[in-house]
Amino acid sequence: MTTKRKLFIWFTIANLLLGYPLFYVFGYSVYNGALPLLGYILLVSLINFIFIRLLKDNWLLLSMVAFVLILSTAYIPVLIFGLKLLMKE
Fold first, then answer.
1. How far apart are CA 72 and CA 78, in angstroms?
2. For 39, which of 23, 31, 45, 55 is 20 to 30 Å away at the CA?
3. What is the pLDDT of residues 1-15, one digit of tens each?
4. Contact, 65 vs 13, CB < 8 A?
């Protein structure tokens, strides 16, 4: 059986990895409809639901942590894109 600490580490890693493609999925959904974004949100919600159920901890706090991790990681491509634009000038 895995411990809560290992599960929390996997929870953090999963949310960091799931947050990165959000920028690209959102950009793709702007031109091709909302279905890819809806599918992505459902996938992220399902994965977080499984982790939160396994952790059996405060679900509201874990949901907020997941939200912050996903949004902070989703901001990385925006920074990279902005830096590339700055370097061109």
1. 10
2. 55
3. 578 888 899 999 999
4. no
